[in-house]
Amino acid sequence: MAFQGKKLINDPNDVVTEFIEGLVETYPGLQYLDGFPQVKVVLRADVSAATYNKVAIISGGGSGHEPAHAGFVGEGMLTAAICGDVFASPPVDSILAGIRAVTGPMGCLLIVKNYTGDRLNFGLAAEQAKSEGYNIETVIVGDDCALPPPRGIAGRRGLAGTILVHKVAGAAAAAGLSLSEVAAEAKRASEMVGTMGVALSVCTLPGQVTSDRLGPGKMELGLGIHGEPGAAVADLQPVEVVVSHVLKQILSSETNYVPITRGNRVVLMINGLGATPLMELMIASGKAVPQLQLEHGLAVDRVYTGSFMTSLDMAGFSISIMKADQAILQRLDAPTRAPAWPAGVNGGHPPAKTPVPVPPSRSTKSDESLGRPLQLNQEGQTLEVAIEAAANALINIMDGLNEWDSKAGDGDCGSTMYKGAAAILEDMTNYPLNDAAETVNEIGSSIGKVMGGTSGIIYNIFCKAAYAQLKTSAQSDVTATKWAEALQAAIAAVSKYGGASAGYRTLLDAFIPASEVLQGRLNAGDDPVTAFLLSSEAALAGAESTKHMQAQAGRSTYVSAEILASVPDPGAMAAASWYRAAALAVKDKYQPS
C-alpha cells in the first residue's frame, strides 16, 4: 500500500531553493542569481558575462537529480546550471537569465537532456538569446539504451551519460576552443555514450506518497530518472547477473546504440540513483570491469563510481559506457573545480592487487630457518611434546567448554578453542621448534588464521607479546626465567588491550596465579620442571575460583550472578587445561614416573 514519504525538509515547495542555498554555503566557488523562486540558477562565482572570455557551458533540467546539475558547476565543467522544480523542466525565463549572466563574446553551449520539456524550454530560450545577439549552440544528449529504438520523435532519454558530456565540453571550453569546436566535441561525446538503469524501488517526491509499484523481491530494468516505468520488471538477481544483463543491453549489436566493438577503449560510470550505498556501487564496479574486459573484449581506461545523476531516493544504479580515445581521455582527465566531479580517477590503473607485506622477522630469515628443523635439539623436543599435549587437551575438553559457555556466554568457547588447537597441530610440522621465540610467533599466526571472536585476538596478542619478550634473549637456549618473563609480558599485554585484570572472571584468573607461582618457585631455587608443574596447579585453582567471581569483562557481564556461580569461566578453564597439559608433558619427558 502507499504511504506518506518521510523527508528531512521544510515546505515541499521550497526544497529546490533551500537546496541551492545550502549548496552555495558549502562551496564558496558557487553563487546563485537573486531571482527566487522563479529564477533558480547556480553559476560560477568567478564568471560574469562582461569579462568572461571563454565559451560558457550551461545545462540543467528538473531538480531531484542532485548532484546534477548544480554540483557540476565549476571551472573546467559547467559555467551555470538551470534548476527547475522537482522533475520539472526549468522555465524559459530562468534559462535566459543564466545565459545572460555568464555568456560573453565566445558564446554559449547548451547541453540538454532529451526530454520534451527540456528541449522545448531550452530551445525557446536559445532562440530568444540569439535574437538578443548571443552566439548559441545546443547539443541534445540521449544516451538511454534500455528501450527499443523509438518510432516517433521522442528519441532516447538523457541519462547519467550526460555528465561525461558535461566534462568533455567543459574541458574543451577551458582549453580556449571556439564555440563550434566545443559543440563538435560535445556532440561527438554524446554519440559515444550509452546508459541503462536498474531500480529496486521507485522514488518519492517531496510531500507525496511513496509508491508500491515495485513489490518485494522485484527490480525494474531500464526505468527513467523521473521514476517512469522501465522496459521490464523482473525478480531481483545477484548484482553480477544484473551487471551482465545491462552491459549486454548497452553494447547490443542489434540496437547499435553505441559505436563500441571488441578491441575498443571505454570509460565506465557506475551511478547511484539516490539511495544505494557506496558499498553496493563499488561491488557493481568490481563486477563490471572484468566483464567488459573478458566477455566484451574492451579495455577499461577509466572508472567513475558514485552518485552523479540521481532520482531523489530511488534505490538502484545506472551504468554508462563511453567509447574512449586519447582526445576523450584528455578532456576527462583535465582539471576541474566542480565539486561533484570525482577526484583521484585521472590516469591509468596500477595493478589492482599488491602483495601482503611480510613481517620483518620472516623477511630476514631464510625459509629453512622458519621450517621444521631436520633434527630437533633438546629445546625443540620439549616444545614439541608441550605443544602437542596442550593442543590435544583443548580438543578433548571441547564439549565441556561449550557446555559451560552455554550458561556463561554464547556457547562456542570449546568450538573456538578446538579450531585453534587443530590449526596448531596441522601447522606444527612447519614450526621452527629449535627456535622458541619463532615457534611462539608461529603459534600466534596459526591461531589468528582460524580463531574468531575475542578469544582469537586475545591469544594472538598473548603469543605476540611472549614472542617479543623471548626475542630479547641473546642466548640460543631460552632459560626457564626467560619463559617466566615471557608469560608475564603476555599477561600484561592481554590486560592492557583487553582491559581485564585479576578477579574479572577471565582467562587471566588462570594465568596470573600461574605466573606468580612460576616466578616465585624459580626464585626460590626450584628446578624448572617442578616450578612449571606447581604453577599449573595454581592455574587450575585460579580457573576454578572464577565460580565465585562477578564477571566484569566479556559477554558474562550480562549473565546473572546465580547462573555464573554454577560454572567456572570457560576461558579460564581452557587456559588452565592447556597449561596443565603442557606442564605434565614436560614432567613426563624429564621426570618419568
UniProtKB/TrEMBL annotation:
Signal peptide positions (record): none
Top-level division of the source organism's lineage: Eukaryota
Record domain DhaL: where: 381-584
UniProt keywords, alphabetically: ATP-binding, Kinase, Nucleotide-binding, Transferase
GO CC list: cytosol
SUPFAM superfamilies (alphabetical): DAK1/DegV-like, DhaL-like
Annotated residues for binding of substrate: G62, S63, G64, H65, K113, D118
Region feature Disordered, mapped onto this chain: 339-372
UniProt xrefs under SMART domains: Dak2
Keyword Ribosomal protein part of the UniProt annotation: no
Active site: residue positions: H226 (tele-hemiaminal-histidine intermediate)
Domain DhaK: residue ranges: 11-341
Family: Belongs to the dihydroxyacetone kinase (DAK) family.
Name of this chain's protein: Dihydroxyacetone kinase
Organism: Trema orientale
